[in-house]
Amino acid sequence: MEGIENYIETLLGDIQANIFKKALDYRASVTREVNSYEEFKVEIEKGGFLLCHWDGTPETEEKIKDETKATIRCIPFDGDKTPGKCMVTGKPSARRVVFARAY
Amino acid sequence: MEGFAKECAVVTHYRLKASPDGKGVVVDPEAKLEEELIVRPTSETIIWSTYKNWIQSYRDLPILCNQWANVVRWEMRTRLFLRTAEFLWQEGHTAHATETEAIEEARKMLEVYADFAERFMAVPVLKGVKSANERFAGAIETFCIEALMQDGKALQAGTSHFLGQNFAKAFDVTFVDRNNKQDYVWATSWGVSTRLMGALIMAHSDDNGLVLPPKLAPFQVVVVPIYKNDEQLAAISERVDDMLPKLKAKGISVKYDNNDTKKPGWKFAEYELKGAPVRLAIGLRDLENGTVEVARRDTLTKRR
Question: Is pTM, for the whole model, over 0.90?
């Protein structure tokens, strides 16, 4: 009981940090690179963020959406900026983008 | 408005009347509006027609309007907190003399949203730019924060748009720059909504209910007395009355639940459901030992 206010103050900070970390760890555990469209169709069923190469065209994005219900959530500011080949068309891709099924 | 054309609610009548069959009320056909009214899906129309009156020179810039308003986007499939036909949101609209300044503003607001999501809601977000398909109608770039829910689905949690001169051209908002040349203003808009509540709920909750981050919980600590009779309650309350000011002095919000009509077990379950971050339970044994039971909502662990 003595000094409870200091204990609770620290505890609240710990809880705030812990739930953020838990959410961050969960996100990390379901964020992965996917390199082929076949693999993508399997992986998208499991949820999470899929980091994939995309040729930058609305047509390819639309095709992926129609076939898998996944959309490009964003082209992230941070992260890997290594060029590659689009998982669908094989055309050049400037960098990986983030795919997911979304609300 | 065109970007929202397929999801606008349109008011066509202004009155109901008693149903001829005597059951309830029906739309009064006599009360048809001459001009239909479209319930706003976003406030660009009113903001930009106002900016046209307010902005003449570079001295009038930059300008920022921030407001909380309800907007309506007709949805066939609604989902509580995430996709409701009417929702409360916060929207900001700015106008600038230069392109650089407008881009900086849009990026700055994205940082504000990301900071709020991560440091207050405890929801990690990815920051990035939308592809052309997902971009806000009329924007040059849409920046966004994307959260991930516990079921593996993504949730767009906030957006900030660099609008270029598109809206200025659509509403003919021009200004005279420092060199006495006429130009269209550069603009941004940005918003978050009650959808953030959905993000918060879905990111942290468990089978026992909500898990609220301490920084946003309506009360951070709930105190539950455990007693058998009025004397015991009085003794516990005395100890609690001594403790509460110390907690409050630290800026900690506390609720003492001495409601006599509910049992402690019921209260425990109720505050778990409501997501109170910390629960303190004090019984007779604690009074004797000078202790208190501390339970964490996030880990469901207890200690004395």
Answer: yes
